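step 3/5: co-fold with uracil
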Amino acid sequence: MNHETVSDLHRYLRQQRERYGDELYVEQDVLRAAELAAQGLTEENGEVTEAWKSARTLEHLYDLIHDCRKCPLAESRNKFVFGVGDPEADIVLVGEAPGAEEDRRGEPFVGRAGQLLDKILAAVELSREDVFICNILKCRPPKNRDPLPAEVEQCEPYLHKQLEVLKPKIMLALGRIAAQTLLRTKDSLTKLRAGVHEYQGIPLVVTYHPAALLRNPNWKRPTWEDVQKFRQLYDELKSTAE
Ligand code: URA
Ligand code: URA
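step 4/5: write tokens
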């Protein structure tokens, strides 16, 4: 049920109760569920939690979070940038936050950095359709400044939930912010690029952010090497799974 439907239902049930009293018309548990739902909450096994936490599909999760108003970025955004790609993908890419073009279109990595990302994927015979792409923050920070710790703290539970639903086999973190957030570390990007990490038991490779490559083309070569490593690891995972 979307938010408007729930609000309508809630209003209707209230009117019925005012008119007819509790016994006659209103199922108390239905009313309570509607009241909770109107606040974005749900009750499971006697415990009240935010409804999005129990989403089982990406579509449902999107419905429940795309009107998010938890942090001030909601005021300045045009679109909430949930993420895009194959919900069944083995591979998930995580970037930092939407930029201007992403904010306008509601899709991650569609600006200049995104075009470069497409080329990076193509270099290892992958395309956007093969993967799911999302960001640490769903809303654009003004002037593309770095996400504030408070913004990351409010927003990252959505990403963790997406990853729980997506269950990727392998992940690629694009840039320092994505890597540090997913791996809960303050280690430098140089350090994090070395080796293979794990996010919730899922192998995770770290590379430069494509926007950083636009500023410093010297980083293209090492990025190519990182994604080759990533591709090789993915092929190994696939062959052992078969
Ligand atoms: N909107 C998106 O951007 N992605 C989805 O998967 C669903 C809605
Ligand atoms: N940079 C990011 O980190 N994410 C986007 O979606 C676009 C640019």
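step 5/5: annotate
The pocket of uracil (ligand 1) is lined by residues 58, 62, 82-84, 106-107 (CB under 6 Å).
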